[in-house]
Design goal:
Distance between the termini: 14 Å
Largest sheet: 9 strands, mixed
Order of helices and strands: HEHEHHEEEEEHEHHEEEEEEEEEEEH
Radius of gyration: 21 Å
Number of helices: 8
Helix content: 25-40%
Length: 317
């Protein structure tokens, strides 16, 4: 009886967390700011309460907004060899066939990649420049002068510089599966559009996680892909659910979640707070740059860890 009462109490807490979080101010849509905020304003109104927003007129002075056409990138970067994620289905770092499958990381001339994006060359596979290791500064230094090395008001608000600045360019079929990051993320769209589906951390009880054998796509001699296990690697916790087409028979709890959707257009910046779940699609040839600032491991992190532990406990019981 005591164990049953304890389990009911835990379930009650899990049900209350998301409801109370929404009542405390998480809105039904992503708000817009018509100007970049001051550091104090941004920290007080957005970072501290862990709330997303779309900021307009924050990058309007960047040369990249008028310069970064595919023709310009072809001229400036040229045939230099860069890292490109290649998959048969557009899903890099995603659950497929009961594996956590990572893309083939192909080293190829940038001009060859642009030929595929511009459909001058056809391929059955999906290509995406998406290496998240500060690839803008490491692989595309020719482009750094067209943006900023950091976002000054964010750096001042957090008292630190970004850990990474990443460059994104790919086909519309390239999709980022639902996941979360331990970063405060400023996502800036240079051309095209990015489509985000978001869940606050309080939706964790409704979002399934499983442990999966990590694997990598590898191209066989006939050009087809095979999935090769990373034999000595630990299993990876990942979300198997597709939020655009959720299997509610398999994951009925997800019906209680309330995703937010937004489109970030050219010249706009999305503030994506740490620990928010996000699924991302894009228009074809969309170009973006994002800044990752390491999160503070403070009360928000402790709250999420508690929520995560309670969710796992209920599942085991």
């Amino acid at each position: 009886m005591a164990e049953g009462a304890a389990l009911r109490a835990v379930r009650g807490c899990l049900a209350a967390f998301p409801r109370e979080a929404r009542e405390l101010g998480w809105t039904e849509s992503i708000p817009y700011l018509d100007r970049p905020p001051s550091p104090l304003e941004f920290y007080r109104e957005w970072v501290s309460p862990n709330k997303p927003c779309i900021i307009q007129n924050a990058i309007s002075h960047w040369p990249a907004l008028r310069k970064w056409t595919l023709a310009y990138l072809r001229e400036v970067v040229g045939p230099k060899v860069v890292s490109v994620a290649v998959t048969p289905n557009g899903y890099a770092d995603a659950v497929f066939q009961d594996r956590f499958v990572m893309p083939e990381e192909r080293q190829m001339p940038f001009t060859d990649f642009l030929d595929i994006v511009e459909k001058k060359v056809t391929s059955p596979n999906i290509f995406y420049v998406q290496k998240q290791c500060s690839n803008l500064t490491k692989e595309f230094p020719e482009l750094v002068c067209d943006v900023q090395p950091d976002i000054p008001w964010m750096s001042e608000a957090l008292g630190k510089k970004p850990d990474a600045v990443n460059f994104w360019l790919g086909e519309s079929a390239a999709v980022t599966s639902l996941h979360k990051d331990h970063y405060e993320n400023l996502y800036c769209v240079i051309s095209g559009e990015k489509h985000f589906l978001l869940h606050p951390p309080s939706d964790r009880p409704f979002i399934p996680y499983e442990l999966y054998q990590p694997a990598t796509y590898q191209v066989s001699e006939d050009g087809s892909f095979e999935i090769v296990d990373e034999k000595n690697a630990d299993k990876v916790p990942w979300i198997p659910l597709d939020p655009l087409n959720p299997n509610l028979e398999q994951y009925p709890e997800y019906a209680k979640a309330k995703p937010l959707q937004c489109t970030v257009k050219a010249g706009e910046m999305l503030y994506l707070p740490s620990l928010w779940f996000h699924h991302v699609q894009q228009s074809h040839g969309c170009i973006a740059v994002n800044y990752w600032y390491d999160m503070e491991y403070d009360l928000k992190y402790s709250y999420y860890q508690l929520l995560d532990c309670l969710t796992k406990t209920v599942k085991v019981l």
